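quick one before i forget lol
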Amino acid sequence: MDVNVKGLEPEVAERLAQQAAAEGLSQQEWIRQVLRRTAGRLSPAELVEQRESLEPMSGDDFEKIQAAVARRRRQRAKSLGARRRRR
């Protein structure tokens, strides 16, 4: 498929050119990659539809996840040599 964008603001075109150059890509390839990433994401309507199809999380499951996240954060902080925060 070929896409032709008309009426693109000069500042937007310039920014895309800068981004492409920073990545060492042609403007066309940069825009292809941007479009691929965008197409790979769910739209807001799709996110709402997906969310509505899920069962609510139980309080126990939520607490388990919170505890696991806290453990991982403590482990990561320890591996980075961070001191424990006082509360």
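fyi DSSP finds four helices and no strands in the chain.
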